[in-house]
Model the fold of this input.
Amino acid sequence: MSEIFITDADGKQSSLQIKPGLSLMEHLRDADFDEVQAICGGCCSCATCHVHIQSSAGDIPAMEENEEALLELEDSFDSNKSRLSCQIELDESHHGLRVVLLADEF
Done:
């Protein structure tokens, strides 16, 4: 089974089993991580699923213009790590992906 590793805003580490075809945001929301509000439901329009990708595994798609525009408005924006978790669909190749959740910015 493939898994990803999560560090929440308090520094607690955990792992999640990957369900291919679901986005990173869906995995985090379904696991009840409070830091991921996902208000828009994954439409890339709110940035409430902003995470930092600590180490990549598998093919993470390049950031599109609208995602970057939303993220640049965030206080914790990091051009090397910031992503909207709704824009990353996971599969087995993402085994070992490390994600850091951010404190609520709203």
